Amino acid sequence: MPFRPYSVTDYVEDVSPGHGALPPRARYSSSDAASLSLNGTWRFRLSGTADAEDDSFAAAEYDAGGWAEVRVPGHWVLQGHGSPIYTNHLYPFPVDPPRVPTENPTGDHRLVFDLPRDWPGPSDGGAVLRFDGVESCARVWLNGTDLGEFKGSRLPHEFAVGDLLRATGNVLAVRVHQWSAGSYLEDQDQWWLPGIFRDVTLLHRPAGSALDFFVHASYDHRRGTGTLRVDSDVDGRVTVPDLGIDIGTGDEATVPVEPWSAEIPRLYDAVLATEGERVPLRIGFRTVELSDGLIKVNGRAVLFKGVNRHEWHPERGRALDPQTMREDVLLMKRHNVNAVRTSHYPPHPAFLDLCDEYGLWVIDECDLETHGFTEQGWRGNPVDDDRWTPALLDRAARMVERDKNHPCVVVWSLGNEAGTGRGLTAMADWIHHRDPSRPVHYEGDVDCRDTDVYSRMYAGHAEVERIGRGLDGGPARRRELPFILCEYAHAMGNGPGGLADYQRLFERHDRLQGGFVWEWIDHGIAHPELGYAYGGDFGEELHDGNFVCDGLVFPDRRPSPGLVEYKKVIEPVAVAGDGADGTVRITNKYDFADLSALAFTWSYQVDGETVESGGLPVPALAPGESADVKLPQPPPGAPAGEALWTVRAVLAADAPWAPRDHLVAWGQIRVTERRVPYVAATARPVRDDGVLTLGPGTFDARTGALTAIGGVAVSAPRLDVWRATTDNDDGAAWQSDVRYGPLWRKLGLHRMRHRLDGVLADEDALTVRTRVAPAARELGLATVYRWTSDGGRLRLTVSVGPEGDWQVPLPRLGVRFGLPAADRVRWFGGGPGEAYPDTRSAAAIGRWRSTVDDLQTPYVRPQENGARVDVRWVELGGLRIEGDPEFLLTVRRWTGEHLDAAAHRTDLTPGDQVWVNLDHAQHGIGSQSCGPGPLPQYHLHAEPAEFSFVFTPAPGTV
Ligand code: GAL
């Protein structure tokens, strides 16, 4: 007599993949077989446990009229029923596999549907009911018949339903449990979001139609030929009109073809005709192989400039619509991204169609992660427990069979962060056997026993360089394999820093075949009060805060500065030169494409103003080739000043992913140096009734504090060394290296005190001596402000001398002051976007305009942001400020302290002043929120420093 009374839901805790579903097969849509989308509004009832309700709702006569409604595809927790939970790797339930909590939110879904009038009758074949994704476990009834149940949330499941269908009044009932044995295999770092979140479709299967077929389309780069063979379980013919191919299934044809690559995604329309139906195919010929220790496609080594993509939409979660998927692909292509790892599960199938069409290399990853077992030293890990192996193999098969006909898929990945074990070996063996045409990836296989590529995440630059040089040792098999960073450059908040430094390594060492930035999009959830919600905002008892917002695009898909930086760093054309010899060196960094799709232009700028521009003839260089291209003579009569060339590579004609003139790559070449501003100290300080005047400046005579410049009242510039710590400053708790954010706070750099030591007005200067230091510490910064003027302009020179034992870098070093008002901002320097010492590749020197509001970068969790680098001068709020040397500019309507205290953007409200930071330097950004901190060359050491600013009243710039 079993003790447990819950037999009706035993399947929930069953380690098997399920019962009743059809075997996995290729995903395709036939051109003539009927199909019916069952997406739409379904009836919905939520219960707190798996067994709260019996299955009477599956019966035709059941009246669900009183139930709520949900949108399918969708997650009920995003539609007002319960709430989402975010954990990185912790299971939000006790780890006792395969048992799950009694509190198991269970959503009963019910849809009544009619068949279209022309739906074929039973004599014309069968029908299948397809679920493209249900989290995490579903049991399905059609017209009262129990079809079975399944797990494997981001994988398709089909049921044969032909003999159950009726013309009208079909009742489809689906019971979905949030937690199941499958949840142990789905511990990816993301929101837990139950529901029927991908399409539900009824497909007619005409008699004589193929169940499954496998398109083998390889490319022989030596001969320029493609070989096509389509294996199918039923006989048929395959025709490719453009290639004159007309062969039987199982037969082979070899003809000259244009190959498929992510750069030139040539697809051929084809048809597989069986007795039962015509299946349109899009065939891309390409061969992936490991040779010379490299992943080669069509005979050439590829460099992955990739991103990790979770499926995300701020309102709909992982229920993505076709436009959103297309937007992702277009955004990636427009930002020079050439590869996607589908972290950490096979994506909606339509996404792969888009990757085939627009051209992206794909690492297709299986829906598998058991990361939470790390908490107990991986004890009980399902991937090392034979009872789970059928479920693992089922997942591998559902991915491979569904996606095998996509040319974009060049690597299979077993999953993510699942430790090691026999189950993974079994998956790898099965995949190698079923599809020997693609390498197998799994980062957790550090010795590469089961895998074909050495893959790591977040390795620092020095280690990556060692690996690139082959100095990393390790097992013999691994030493022969190519290397990728399946995750690097953690794009959480401000950052990632250090991208350019990685890219230089990738380009220098053949073995390094690139990487995939973690990750594509912030998973913020649109929230009426908070803007975007993150972990903890729904009252979760366990959560990982904003670690879920670590993407290159914001939740609304606006590119973050990180994406703009990445675009520049991975641009496929290098523009270089020193300006002295009048030539520019152009290098084609594509792996496959020549430069014929690009048009080049030059422009000659003096002090940021374009004097003249024109077209630059550049030969259609082959991949890897360079040419020195002559620039025109500098325009005669160009004004004197700081001159530079800007060379741009743009699309010469409309491409499927961007219009003509879309900027692909650029570079700037300096011609003449900047002249720094000189202010002769000719004006005298004049004291009158507690007020001291020096040129346009008015000061408090007692404290030496500046109170106005011209007519503009200001709050005095003071040394500022604090920045609202970034996620990368704070670092992840598990980081073993020094995390400066917490250290800075411990030192008290966020609460520096300013002691006035002396004010001296002499012949030609006002000098104010101070010491800036935190309470409780002996270290400090001796800071001297020296003001001079030529009558019209006011020059401030700040000298900083560290005192005491400064073992830590400073967050920033500069001055901050307040303006009563400012809106428009104009500057000459780096722009248009945010940049920091190790995120500054995309900052182009020019004249830029913005508003104070638009200078802010909307990181989901507020933090230091918005700096512009290399600023020569800025005009705002009735002032013009020039730097000697160039400076970093930050302008905001709140102080750094307010920014620091905010948890969401909605916590930031404009104060009565606009705060301007003029920084001599800032500390680098790095990516220590999961990866390495800033490289040493980007540290801002506490050292003696001197820097100046020249202030001039400039009415009309508010
Ligand atoms: C990796 C993991 C990702 C994500 C990332 C941090 O370890 O594979 O899923 O958690 O770290 O954001």
Automatic annotation (TrEMBL):
PROSITE patterns given in the database record: GLYCOSYL_HYDROL_F2_1 (PS00719), GLYCOSYL_HYDROL_F2_2 (PS00608)
Range of residues in the leader sequence: none
Keyword line: Glycosidase, Hydrolase
Pfam family, any one: Glyco_hydro_2_N
InterPro entries (UniProt xref): B-gal_small/dom_5, Bact_Beta-galactosidase, Beta-gal/glucu_dom_sf, Gal_mutarotase_sf_dom, Galactose-bd-like_sf, GH, GH-type_carb-bd, Glyco_hydro_2
Domain called Beta galactosidase small chain/: residue spans: 693-952
Catalytic reactions on record: Hydrolysis of terminal non-reducing beta-D-galactose residues in beta-D-galactosides
Domain of life: Bacteria
Protein name: Beta-galactosidase
